[in-house]
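Render Dihydrolipoyl dehydrogenase in 3D.
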Amino acid sequence: MVVGDFAEDLETVVIGSGPGGYVAAIHAAELGQKVTVIEREFIGGVCLNVGCIPSKALIEAAHHYQSALGSNKMGIVTENVKLDFAKAQEWKGSVVDRLTGGVAGLFKKHHIDVLWGEAYLKDDHSLRVIGKDDSAQTYNFEHLIIASGSHPIEIPNFKFEGRVLDSTGALALKEVPKELVVIGGGYIGSELASAYAELGAHVTILEGLDSILANYESDMVKVVQKNMTDKNVDIYTSAMAKKAEQTDSAVKITAEVNGETKEFTADYCIVSVGRKPNTAEMGLEQAGVKTNDRGLIEVDAQGKTSQPHIYAIGDVVAGAALAHKASYEGKVAAEAISGKTSTVDYRAMPAVCYTSVQIATTGLTVKEAKEQGLDVKKAQFPFAANGRAISMDATDGFIRLVFVKDTEALVGAQIVGANAADLITELTLAIESGATLDDVALTIHPHPSLAEGVMDAADVGLGFPTNI
Ligand code: FAD
Ligand code: NAI
């Protein structure tokens, strides 16, 4: 270890190169700042390496496999459809490489320097970067953006080793398990349960609450749940995982389900019970950066921490732990450093769970709107009445709009069904730009498309439905 090194002076430093950090870094460089990124593991963070991107690649491979198996009714001969899982994993790896390589290329293009190592704050204007080889160098910074992300929560008696996997292990399996137990039916648990079920596993979800995907409304979750159970997923709710015992070839999970002790045996057990911010042991207290009792960094609407030249974004601050939220906050922080007055506005924050039938929300639900004192109504349109959905054999689910009774201004939307992730975007823009039901209903939508369902839902809200 180098002791007593001379500090180098840097302008804008970003800790972490996930979707928060890399977007902040690039935008700051675009605005004329000289940017340095410090990264301890991989360019692209959790999202690109072991999160959003690889999970979606695997989910997509699973869909392709399922649709190949199930396309018989469209007249396609489906004998001998086989899954080469090693190849699917290889493909997933190639997707990750392409995107992480892309970010590295963008860093070069914007003259952003990358320092490899772990950042540790010494005080409010300097930090040390400790390399894997224990080398250390001190840097002074003018501005700092903390985008150090989060890691999976480990629960007692479920140490991540062997057949007990966190999400990273679950995405790196070399075989499709015959029996898979998933503890926690939130985002990761539900997505991976859907994917592995489509790849051929029998999956059991053990969820502590009385519903999987408890953040979403129950009529939407019902659609997802039905699709999962049809695909060989058993769902136990009010099920608290107690312990895992491993042998060479299996793992036995004991859980309390509705107060009764039950045992489940599986090839692998995925534990996806939430994530914790990477804020401990970073020297935040020495720098005077305040965190709350959950370890989240306290920030204002520009991402400024208790030290006005230090910003924090993404999974280390409050709110949904989502990649697009991290990126959005990254842009705002970069602009604030450049002296702009930008602030965050979460009025239309989309969230999507990529289960086989996707579930998505943006803006407010009816309940949330009422809690805010808004007098709202809802309008709904089912995919079963949409020509494109019928031709895709994807008629499960619906589109729901939430709008203010008097003004008919959209304040929220929820979608469960095929391509919900893409469809919610139109409604996010509609809410963001203050659109009314009329604006949506009079927007010409291409035919036939799933998006026509959005227009049809607006027609329902206006009281003049055409297609239902
Ligand atoms: P991260 O992506 O976690 O990046 C933080 C980076 O900081 C890491 O590279 C880390 O190595 C580095 N770092 C940490 N501490 C230090 C330090 N002291 N010094 C130097 N470097 C450090 N979100 C979505 O919106 N859509 C999805 O589909 C989705 N799917 C997901 C699937 C899975 C399996 C998982 C686990 C997560 C998923 N997420 C998804 C969540 C998403 O990945 C996170 O919200 C997002 O990555 C947060 O971005 P971030 O920039 O805050 O942090
Ligand atoms: P999560 O918070 O979404 O779900 C965790 C679930 O585990 C909850 O339903 C909780 O009730 C349950 N649980 C907790 N302890 C339990 C126990 N002992 N036994 C049984 N159940 C228990 O967390 P998850 O799935 O780990 O994902 C972390 C975050 O990553 C998400 O909150 C989300 O922000 C992000 N993410 C986003 C995705 C997307 O946008 N599509 C996909 C994957 C992750």
